């Protein structure tokens, strides 16, 4: 299984509705893109104070690396990724992405 982790610094001017629409779109990838086992998403609530401005995170669990590799160019992922980049502070610079085999 491959776990794809994304940390996001969302723009402070996003409304609650805009944020929820984005999070719903991210969750919706599970039904649109084959090979996704689960998507978890949420806002930071750590008391440690080490988030460094990243206020939201999500994980996407894939069956395997080939499912992850097929997800990357998938048109639905491209649409959601474009919306996510537009919603972050600094565009791509407002994202941190890591994958690992779990």
List the defining traits of the structure above.
102 residues; alpha+beta; four-stranded antiparallel sheet; 3 helices; 4 strands; globular
Question: Could you explain how this protein is built, in words?
Answer:
The chain has 102 residues and is α+β, with helices and mostly antiparallel strands. A 4-stranded antiparallel beta sheet has the order 2-3-1-4. The model has no long low-confidence stretch (mean pLDDT 97).
Short structural summary:
With 102 residues, the protein is α+β, with helices and mostly antiparallel strands. The chain has 3 helices and 4 strands.
Helix/strand layout:
Elements: E1 2-8, H1 16-32, E2 36-43, E3 56-62, H2 65-71, H3 75-87, E4 95-101
Antiparallel strand pairs: 1-3, 1-4, 2-3
Helix pairs in contact: 1-3
